[in-house]
């Protein structure tokens, strides 16, 4: 599933406003739908065959893996048949919800759950969860938190994504290192030593791209983006500020002009010319899918996988990281909420979750699956599965304004790196723009 840009974010806000204004039916109507579902549960009348529509964002081989599970469900449930549709245009999801004709179940990104849920586009699942005694304690806390807000659970995370540090063993050995950096101070040293300039000062090899996402390193410094008690956004938090300073310090060693020149000659990510595969990057921060790409495009690459370095002054922050998720939810206004829940719950059960995530190379969100045999043959997964249980993994705060917050932070972070704005001014701009949205 691919993210959309800022224009999509504005459209999302507009459509969600339409949900609240009643384009898809009034609150009383929505309540009536839910109460009707509750009444049906207590009825002894025979149930007629129900067909559910399931919109998901995966395509290609990943969609094929999901369709296999849909078939498995349909073969075992003649009374509830599910029809899948690969639909990664989330604007169409919102249009269908506001128009009163939503799919019965759908997928989305974890960071979009709370903005959609709190604005009325997603049905809270808590009554279903309590009725069926679903053990939320089996879900990785950082993954589950992206689906919850204000005491409500709007979705269940089906897959999670965590970044780790990949390093080229041969390049590190050539530079005199026997292993990867463990602390942020060591990482800074490694980057400088592993960056090679030739031909009159032109960059030929980079230790680590300095513009790597600030979220991961923010958690390495114990940073926080939101104070829920005070209802204050905190892009100027000390840990966040340290992470931005770290990226800025590395960026300034080379300068925008030289980094842009260097980047213009790099190969495509999903190809044998990926800069990490060709040795242009000695280290990179990437997800659990990268080992599969290495096996396909650079099978002879000698590499290692290590935890994200942590602030040496805070050893309790060891194994930090940023978690993102893919989730399943029930849209507002569905005609068969009980049946939708049965399928959603089944998909999130350990057996189905293991089959799906192993097939598409994503991490499971259940801790009970971290030693499951399905993942033994997936390259690099043992390191990532072990890492996914770290208590220092966090997801970006789940709020109704998360999309706008992340977009503005990324814009100002890039401006800070390039020297278009000072660090303090850039973070202030984020706060000034996003704090009014807290209400």
From TrEMBL:
<dbReference type="InterPro" id="IPR050490">
    <property type="entry name" value="Bact_solute-bd_prot1"/>
</dbReference>
<dbReference type="InterPro" id="IPR006059">
    <property type="entry name" value="SBP"/>
</dbReference>
<dbReference type="Pfam" id="PF01547">
    <property type="entry name" value="SBP_bac_1"/>
</dbReference>
<feature type="signal peptide">
    <location>
        <begin position="1"/>
        <end position="17"/>
    </location>
</feature>
<feature type="region of interest" description="Disordered">
    <location>
        <begin position="26"/>
        <end position="45"/>
    </location>
</feature>
<protein>
    <submittedName>
        <fullName>ABC transporter substrate-binding protein</fullName>
    </submittedName>
</protein>
<keyword id="KW-0732">Signal</keyword>
């Amino acid at each position: 599933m691919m993210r959309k840009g800022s224009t999509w974010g504005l459209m999302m806000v507009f459509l969600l406003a339409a949900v609240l204004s009643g384009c898809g039916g009034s609150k009383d109507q929505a309540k009536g739908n839910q109460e009707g579902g509750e009444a049906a549960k207590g009825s002894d009348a025979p149930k007629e065959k129900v067909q559910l529509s399931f919109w998901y964002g995966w395509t290609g081989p990943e969609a094929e893996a999901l369709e296999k599970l849909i078939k498995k469900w349909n073969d075992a449930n003649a009374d509830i048949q599910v029809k899948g549709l690969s639909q990664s245009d989330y604007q169409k999801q919102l249009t269908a919800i506001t128009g009163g004709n939503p799919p019965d179940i759908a997928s989305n990104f974890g960071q979009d759950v709370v903005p959609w849920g709190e604005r009325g586009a997603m049905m809270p699942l808590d009554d279903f969860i309590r009725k069926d005694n679903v053990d939320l304690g089996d879900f990785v806390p950082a993954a589950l938190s992206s689906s919850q807000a204000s005491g409500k659970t709007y979705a269940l995370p089906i897959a999670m994504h965590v970044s780790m540090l990949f390093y080229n063993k041969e390049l590190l050995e050539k530079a005199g290192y026997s292993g990867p950096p463990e602390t942020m101070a060591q990482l800074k040293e490694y980057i400088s030593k592993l960056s090679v300039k030739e031909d009159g000062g032109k960059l030929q090899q980079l230790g680590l791209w300095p513009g790597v996402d600030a979220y991961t390193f923010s958690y390495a410094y114990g940073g926080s983006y939101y104070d829920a008690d005070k209802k204050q956004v905190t892009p100027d938090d000390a840990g966040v500020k340290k992470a931005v300073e770290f990226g800025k310090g590395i960026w300034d060693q080379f300068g925008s002009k030289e980094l842009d020149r260097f980047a213009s000659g790099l190969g495509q990510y999903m190809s044998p010319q990926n800069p990490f595969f060709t040795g242009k990057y000695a280290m990179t921060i990437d997800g659990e899918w990268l080992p599969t790409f290495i096996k396909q495009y650079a099978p002879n690459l000698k590499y290692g996988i290590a935890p994200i370095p942590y602030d040496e002054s805070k050893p309790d922050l060891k194994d930090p990281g940023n978690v993102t998720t893919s989730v399943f939810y029930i849209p507002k206004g569905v005609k068969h909420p009980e049946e939708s829940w049965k399928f959603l719950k089944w998909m999130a059960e350990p057996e189905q979750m293991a089959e799906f995530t192993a097939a598409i190379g994503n991490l499971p969100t259940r801790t009970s699956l971290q030693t499951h045999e399905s993942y033994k043959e997936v390259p690099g997964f043992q390191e990532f599965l072990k890492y996914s249980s770290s208590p220092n993994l966090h997801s970006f705060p789940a709020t109704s304004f998360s999309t706008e917050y992340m977009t503005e932070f990324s814009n100002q972070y890039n401006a800070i790196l390039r020297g278009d704005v000072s660090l303090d001014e850039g973070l202030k701009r984020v706060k000034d723009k996003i704090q009014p949205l807290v209400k």
